[in-house]
Fold:
Amino acid sequence: MPGRDPGGFFITAGIGILGSIIATYGGKALGLYSGEETAGFIGAFVGAIILLVLYRVLMRGRST
Structure:
């Protein structure tokens, strides 16, 4: 995600990967798609973005 990040590169990368994993397995568990479908990739991407946005909102008020 562009812009100033409160956690740095490694924290942002880790949160993005975690969001991707959660969205991928969550979508599979709900039966929305299988791992080989394009929807799986899109879901992982959206999950990563959502988790990164939540992190930024929660960390906005804190000083680093």
